Amino acid sequence: TRPAGAIFDCFDQQKHTVKRFNVPRNWLRVLGIDFGPLNCAYVKIAIDPKTLDHQDGPIGYVYRTYHKGGVATKHHTEHALREEPRVPLAVGGNQTNEDGWRNDFSHYGLKIRKPKVCEVTAGIQAVYSMFATNRLFVFDDLEKLIEELNQYSYELDDEANAIQDK
Fold first, then answer.
1. pTM of the entire structure?
2. From edge to edge, which strands make up the β-sheet containing 112-113?
3. What's the pLDDT at 166?
């Protein structure tokens, strides 16, 4: 069951997970990264190029995740580039104070762009919309991510209303 205040209540595990397949080499690869010395995390999404011009947006498949802390940026970068046919389009951090992280990754071969959207709730809404319109799918062997999608929830106040901003 989902927790009260579930953020991705539109995520349907039956509908939004797919068996792992070999992502075609010509598909666009996007890497979204969250920096941190204790936990550097990213998701990789493959986008079917035939869907890039679709009026509702492209169709993407989350095919890899990563969570690791306590290692050098070089290790994170090597892991991010491993088994990729080319350097993925990478976006991450916030717009104001994480240029040092982006520069460090760039030094090791992974240029990371500043995100256009930095507000957490706007990012959540973008992902929510992709699930709600069946434009985002997750490989079914990414069990930790699937669990997080099912369990991620807002804190609730005493009247069971979601508290989105603290």
1. 0.88
2. 17-18, 136-139, 60-68, 40-47, 28-34, 89-92, 112-113
3. 44
